[in-house]
């Protein structure tokens, strides 16, 4: 008789715990204190397990500054990987964010990198010695990529995912993988094998999904740079929930081949291609990773990747010989026309738009703000996205979980069921609709396209173009566990395949709870559910991160990063005293 999922989960969790050195285990007193706290962000420092040097390594640098220290030899790879491995182990005990750990392999690689640097005086690649954590979907030879499904446990990968091989070439050290939701179609990172990942800033709120383990690990500084994947919001939602910067590239920018997605090989070619991208604590750390990947010949690792270096990609920055710098033209999308954002999200967009319109902005960054109306467009995108994502009818995943008798996770239990597989002609029609919408979205960027200003505007349309679009990531703030409403504000941009990033702006405060939702009739069932979140315990949102989503046209990741860097600086006044200082030693 095959093992039940309960048997497999017990064995798998025992294996995970056994890979943590006994000297890194939290005391009963520390665990008890953590269990009584709403936020555990201070617990790694209070645990007593991290030395002053380890605290310095994990807290006083960002990834860009750290890799400079590693490449110069001022810090050793061995010391750095020990510090982050220990802190990741502490984070795991606090919020249950890890799946696989390979601390010993990482230490051996760190010693190799230190020896090479000492012998040659040269680092190995632009990421020499940098610890990088990975979402569990990535395959690392010799370790499971179970993605929280019992049927995939104890089946070690026979080869690395494409990006894993590229990261090794670039000099990185991989040391752990992080938790995901069952099926990776949920917005809370819960599965029956590893359990639920918690949000370290507020244990009542969701850590997001499907890269929720990455978000929680980074929030606790058990990682300095993580890589997630995104097919409907799985990088951007955890970044939002944990107050981090995240980037979803377009398909074809970052190697994705060779990952475990729980679906038969080739399925992505019939649906929507997932992409891989960074989650970090600063925009420049995302640039560090994406530029290293772009300059590392990624096309040699994945045939889908476009051969284009970082320098060859479209840039926001103007030539030094340009006489007059053109303004950064920002479009503000306030609603997708399907679910109306709650009052605090509307207020956040107001605050952002007002700051960017302010004449007091420094001269280094002239910004022009225009309103963009996609209310007639958004619901169509969501409808096609849902159609494309349900081509398989969920049958492959139901086969996987039923093999060991697994139940669905709570968030999925009322949302996912078996449906008939769509016939070929219906798949073809959906793909045709997807292509049509991608073509139509080109008009949104142009003033002549008819989306600027209100629908009733009769103003003359010119030939101006937007550089970026700012919009919500979700129609609500970071919610309680298992109450995230909809991915419509992220999944639309997977269907359209534009590059998208998340930028934290400020924290949700008590003052945000005082605005009312109005008496208008809900637009639909999703909008009704969204309003119910606001009509419940509004104070539950207090302390959560408030973030914006930034969009650029397809395959313009360099322009996205450069624009986000401008916004990161421009929006500093909104962070006030609750903002997170940049953790870097320059």
Automatic annotation (TrEMBL):
It is an enzyme of class 3 (hydrolase). This is amidase. Substrate binds at residues 184, 210, 231-234. One of its GO terms (molecular function) is amidase activity. It holds the Pfam family Amidase. It comes from Meristemomyces frigidus. Keywords: Hydrolase. Belongs to the amidase family. Its EC number is 3.5.1.4. Residues 79-520 form the Amidase domain. InterPro entries: Amidase_CS, Amidase_dom, AS_sf. SUPFAM superfamilies: Amidase signature (AS) enzymes. The keyword Cell membrane does not apply. The active site is at residues 135, 210, 234. It catalyses: a monocarboxylic acid amide + H2O = a monocarboxylate + NH4(+). Signal peptide: none annotated.
């Amino acid at each position: 008789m095959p093992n039940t999922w309960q048997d497999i989960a017990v064995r798998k969790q025992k294996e995970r715990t056994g890979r943590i050195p006994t000297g890194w285990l939290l005391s009963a007193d520390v665990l008890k204190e953590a269990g009584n706290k709403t936020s555990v962000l201070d617990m790694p420092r209070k645990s007593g397990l991290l030395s002053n040097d380890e605290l310095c390594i994990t807290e006083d640098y960002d990834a860009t500054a750290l890799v400079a220290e590693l490449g110069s030899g001022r810090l050793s790879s061995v010391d750095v990987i020990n510090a982050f491995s220990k802190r990741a182990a502490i984070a795991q005990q606090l919020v249950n964010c890890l799946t696989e750990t390979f601390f010993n392999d990482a230490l051996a690689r760190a010693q190799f990198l230190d020896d090479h640097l000492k012998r040659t005086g040269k680092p190995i690649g632009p990421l020499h010695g940098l610890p990088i954590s990975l979402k569990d979907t990535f395959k690392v030879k010799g370790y499971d990529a179970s993605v929280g499904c019992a049927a995939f446990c104890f089946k070690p990968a026979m080869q690395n995912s494409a990006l894993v091989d590229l990261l090794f070439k670039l000099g990185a050290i991989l040391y752990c993988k992080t938790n995901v939701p069952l099926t990776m179609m949920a917005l809370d990172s819960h599965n029956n094998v590893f359990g639920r990942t918690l949000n370290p800033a507020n244990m009542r709120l969701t850590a997001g999904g499907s890269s929720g383990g990455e978000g929680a690990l980074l929030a606790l500084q058990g990682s300095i740079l993580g890589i997630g994947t995104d097919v409907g919001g799985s990088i951007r939602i955890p970044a939002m929930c944990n107050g981090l910067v995240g980037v979803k590239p377009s398909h074809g920018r970052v190697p994705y081949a060779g990952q475990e997605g729980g679906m038969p090989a080739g399925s992505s070619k019939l649906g929507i291609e997932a992409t891989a991208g960074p989650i970090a604590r600063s925009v420049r750390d995302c640039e560090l990773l994406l530029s290293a990947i772009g300059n590392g010949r990624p096309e040699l690792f994945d045939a889908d990747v476009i051969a284009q270096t970082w320098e060859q990609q479209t840039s926001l920055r103007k030539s030094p010989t340009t006489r007059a710098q053109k303004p950064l033209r920002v479009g503000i999308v306030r609603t997708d026309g399907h679910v109306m954002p709650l009052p605090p999200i509307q207020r956040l967009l107001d605050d952002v738009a007002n700051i960017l319109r302010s004449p007091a902005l420094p001269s280094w960054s002239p910004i022009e703000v225009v309103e963009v109306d996609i209310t007639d467009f958004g619901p169509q995108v969501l409808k096609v996205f849902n159609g494309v994502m349900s081509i398989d009818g969920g049958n492959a995943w139901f086969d996987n979980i039923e093999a060991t008798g697994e139940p669905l996770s709570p968030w999925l239990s009322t949302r996912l069921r078996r449906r008939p597989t769509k016939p070929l002609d219906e798949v073809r029609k959906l793909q045709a609709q997807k292509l049509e919408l991608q073509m139509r979205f080109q008009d949104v960027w142009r003033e002549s396209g008819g989306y600027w200003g209100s629908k009733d505007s009769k103003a003359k349309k010119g030939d101006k173009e937007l550089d970026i679009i700012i919009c919500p990531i979700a129609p609500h703030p970071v919610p309680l566990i298992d109450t995230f409403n909809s991915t419509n504000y992220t999944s639309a941009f997977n269907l359209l395949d534009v590059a998208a990033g998340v930028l934290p702006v400020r924290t949700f405060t008590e003052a945000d709870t005082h605005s009312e939702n109005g008496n208008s009739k809900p637009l639909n069932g999703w909008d009704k559910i969204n309003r119910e979140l606001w009509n419940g315990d509004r104070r539950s949102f207090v302390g959560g991160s408030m973030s914006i989503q930034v969009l650029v046209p397809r395959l313009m990741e360099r322009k996205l990063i450069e624009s986000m860097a401008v916004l990161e600086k421009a929006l500093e006044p909104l962070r006030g005293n609750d903002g997170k200082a940049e953790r870097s030693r320059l």
